[in-house]
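INPUT
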Amino acid sequence: MSTLSFTLALLAASVVVGYLLGGRLQHLLHRRLTWLPLALVAYLVQAVPVHTRGLAVALLLGSFVMLMVFCVANRSAPGIPLLCIGLLMNFAVIAANSGMPVPRSSLVASGQEATLPALQHSAVKHHLAGPDDVLMPLADVIGVGAPIHLLFSPGDLAAFAGMAWLVVGSMRRRYTPRHVVLRRDQIKPRARIADVV
Amino acid sequence: MNNTTKARIRRLAYALASIAALVLAAAAGWRPN
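OUTPUT
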């Protein structure tokens, strides 16, 4: 299973859970996420084919900075703080090692040992873990075998959980814009007849 | 299907695609594709 398929399956499962908990997809539309195109741009930036390693690392880190800006701008949305924590965890490992280290043992645990040559010639986002890599507990150390065959970092798990929370939480409650809440707070209590007379 | 429904479906698809893109960009799990 590719990460794309896993993400789409989790997204669909989140929508089903949202409905089971009494939510509605319509409520997701009412929650206006600020700078939504930034998420798409950040994803596309990672897909830009670059042959210079330094530029590729810079683009990858720049993409993470864009995602962080998006998360900070939408920090009041459900699940976004958790997604932001996952993002920071992945950013820390990638920035420290110029890419995400993948331990050989995790690769075997997830049943992906056949992809070792692909990993060795991979783009900048991943590389086979070596003795110089740091922050290894935050690297791709969680291998999930059949039928998923995927590797996750602890930051990935937080990001996926944050996404599911965002969908389910937004579906469940109707979003009230902040200015409406403020206006409601500013309503003066109705004067009592005794005060007027 | 009227225009309002079409626009709503389009906005919903855009929101879900953006959320998927967000988590795909944030995730760093190895996949060989």
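end of record. The radius of gyration of chain A is 22 Å.
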